[in-house]
């Protein structure tokens, strides 16, 4: 293993956990957004409990339950910006 | 009960992992299917009101990150910390391939031999072959 690679690994080990999550999320988003692609999310009775929260002036905002059904389709398209101008 | 040494770590060390573990607890039931280019790629199912989440990676290679960067669960240390956060929040997260469990993190993980590998009581390898294949596919 070269010194450069070893340094890279030790730098990575020192990365804050939060930035590691960010790097990982960034890579996945890049992967899905950076090309012509269609992604479909099908929600089947997805039930989410929204907990109580404290709003402005310390007001209590009541809890809620969200139920999500349906489909979201996200399509991405790449194009050459220089050819467009 | 003797507290575990790792509980002495400050909880704000990984706020994103903390937030994610807490958010997963808010999922009550139902499911999501993710299709890419019309092909089923992942299915997420939440077992009714049990805080159990099953993630079936039908095409795990879609979730592969760059080879020279951080793989999803390549860094076992991070997986251990996240699994402990899941346990602290009473959440169980299982990863499946082809409908079969590969490994489980969090509250209901019951590691036996796998504890020797992971050094965590919050990670259970359900199927060593599936887990190894999943790790390879994600890398």
What does this protein structure show overall?
The complex is a heterodimer of chains A (about 80) and B (about 140). Chain A contains 3 helices and 4 strands, in the order H-H-E-E-E-E-H. Chain A is of the alpha+beta class. Chain A has 2 domains: about 1-35; about 35-85, no CATH class. In chain A, the strands form 2 sheets. Chain A has a two-stranded antiparallel ribbon. Chain B is an alpha+beta fold and about 140 residues long. Chain B has one domain. In chain B, strand 3 (about 50-55), helix 2 (about 75-90) and strand 4 form a beta-alpha-beta unit. In chain B, helix 1 (about 15-25) crosses helix 2. The N and C termini of chain B lie far apart (about 40 Å). The interface of A and B includes residues 16, 18, 23 and 38 of A.
Q: How many DSSP-defined strands of chain B?
A: 6
Count of β-strands of chain A: 4
- Strand order within the widest beta sheet of chain A: 1-4
Note the total helix count of chain A: 3
Helix content of chain B: 25-40%
Which structural category do the helix and sheet elements of chain B fall into? alpha+beta
Q: Estimate the mean pLDDT confidence of chain B.
A: 81
Share of β-strand residues of chain A = 35-45%
């Amino acid at each position: 293993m070269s010194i450069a690679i070893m340094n890279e690994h030790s730098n990575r080990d020192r990365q804050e956990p939060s930035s590691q999550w960010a790097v990982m999320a960034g890579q996945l988003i890049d992967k899905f957004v950076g090309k012509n692609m269609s992604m479909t999310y099908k929600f089947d009775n997805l039930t989410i409990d929204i907990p109580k929260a404290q709003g402005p002036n310390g007001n209590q905002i009541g809890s809620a339950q969200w139920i999500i059904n349906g489909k979201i389709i996200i399509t991405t398209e790449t194009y050459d910006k220089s050819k467009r101008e | 009960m003797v507290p575990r040494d790792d509980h002495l770590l400050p909880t704000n060390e990984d706020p994103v992992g903390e937030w994610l573990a807490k958010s997963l607890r808010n999922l009550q039931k139902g499911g999501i299917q993710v299709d890419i280019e019309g092909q089923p790629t992942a299915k997420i199912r939440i077992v009714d009101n049990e805080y159990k989440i099953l993630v079936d990676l039908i095409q795990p290679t879609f979730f592969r990150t760059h080879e020279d960067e951080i793989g999803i669960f390549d860094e076992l240390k991070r997986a251990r910390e996240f699994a402990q956060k899941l346990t602290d929040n009473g959440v169980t997260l299982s990863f499946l391939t082809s409908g079969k469990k590969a490994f489980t993190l969090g509250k209901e993980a019951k590691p036996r031999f796998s504890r020797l590998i992971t050094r965590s009581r919050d990670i259970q390898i359900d199927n060593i072959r599936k887990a190894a294949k999943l790790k390879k596919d994600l890398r």
